[in-house]
Amino acid sequence: MDPREYEIAELGPKVREVEDLDELEEMLELEEGGPNREDVKTLLVSRIEKVEAEEKEGPQEIDPSELTVAELGNVVRKIDAVDELEVLLEEEKKGQDRKTAKRLIESQLESVQGSEDGEETERLPPEEKHPDLDHPTADKQYVKALEGGSYRDMWVYCETQQGQLIDATKEMLGKARELMDEYNDSYGETERVVAVVIGDSVEGLAEETIAYGADVAIYTEDPRLERFYHKPYTEVFCEMARAGSGSEWDDSRGDADWKTIEGEVYDEPRYVLFPATNNGRDLSAQVQAELDSGLASDCSGLYIEETVISNPAKTGGAGDKKEFERVLHMKRPDFSGFEYSTILCLDAPGREFHPQGASVIPGSFDLPEPCLLYTSLSG
């Protein structure tokens, strides 16, 4: 791979996949003999040092008595060999015999082994599984996720400032348009980009979102929503997200024709995007918690495709593999700034996680040119 052909944002994820030390050193030489960019050289040197350290480490014996419970947890999480975990558990019992440490090892052991009799393990809510612990979310209104729900569309929260759509909103609408066009072509669907606008006197802004890529614009306007407050904005967004589903959590006060696709009113959005601004970060966390789903924050790349997972927590059994379709892959920079992680929000056995949500760093995508072909508007 020639680093001179890539920008730093594109190069980070690719470099992380390179395990060959010679190839990394060759890439560094090419960069030094070419553009000689400091950030790229730092990225490559960091990766070289990491690969060198991994090669030197090799297999090590683990003495649990030398580790804190937190350190032991980090070590145990990476072990997928039953015999190693059993030895580690025996060492802990002979040594400090810490209750929390043993629980960590036993939990990982159960995940690796799976159910010996092949029967599905009964899944209990946290309040029943661990009655000795405090459960501050036990009375949370929407703590139970949907099962067998229907999900459609990509929703985009459209933030405004001083009566205008901010640029990050327009960027997300353009990217959402691109993603859903590809999605519909790939899966033969007719799902849409839905713009969500909340505030005072925002009907005109809702119309404007359609010019930037939305198929449908839904809005709630009220003088009391002139300024952003996370509690009412969260309630309004979630009420619209559940509108018309008829579920026990549907608090809408009317029909939701705008949520109807092929005669069916879906339960919740399939995907949601928020700008990673101060208000957007706040709202995205509140909304996704209320909808009982997950959130990838501060993303700079998005794409939709299938993925194969072998994690027992997602497949239901050790050694099993499962393909998940229509997964929103959400790329975000790690804390170093030189490497990237791809976050996935996947269903688990007996529990669905929708919408798949992300907040997007402003400037991550191109600012689209407006197109004045309006489609649909709903207030």
UniProtKB/TrEMBL annotation:
Listed Basic and acidic residues bias regions: 121-138
Segments of this protein annotated with the region Disordered: 106-138
Pfam families: ETF (PF01012)
Residue span(s) of domain Electron transfer flavoprotein alpha/beta-subunit N-terminal: 154-375
CDD domains: ETF_alpha
Record's protein name: Electron transfer flavoprotein subunit alpha
Species, as recorded: Halalkalicoccus jeotgali (strain DSM 18796 / CECT 7217 / JCM 14584 / KCTC 4019 / B3)
